[in-house]
Design goal:
97 residues
Length: 97
């Protein structure tokens, strides 16, 4: 299930140039086309992130006796991942680009 969701996300990103051709250039005055393009890119990632967080939480909770400890561990992992991801993007990925 997660593999199919990831492939759907990659497909949405791959279809972005096609959608951009259909919508046309985005001007500051056309907020509707900008909102459509942003929703097309961000909605699948936001949906899949919420799905993955919930699925991992359920799996972690079934393996631990205390639901509070499982929630804390998942939140810690989520926070560390967000922190490390942003640091790596800023200090490793950007200099390479």
């Amino acid at each position: 299930m997660i593999r199919r969701a990831g492939l759907a996300l990659v497909g949405a990103y791959a279809a972005y140039p096609w959608l951009l051709e259909r919508v046309g250039p985005v001007h500051p005055q056309s907020a509707a086309s900008a909102a459509l393009l942003c929703a097309f890119l961000l909605a699948p990632a936001a949906f899949l992130s919420g799905f993955l967080f919930t699925a991992l939480g359920e799996r972690l909770r079934s393996g631990m006796a205390d639901a509070g400890a499982a929630t804390g561990a998942l939140t810690l992992a989520n926070t560390l991942g967000a922190m490390l991801g942003s640091l790596l993007a800023a200090f490793v990925l950007l200099p390479v680009l």
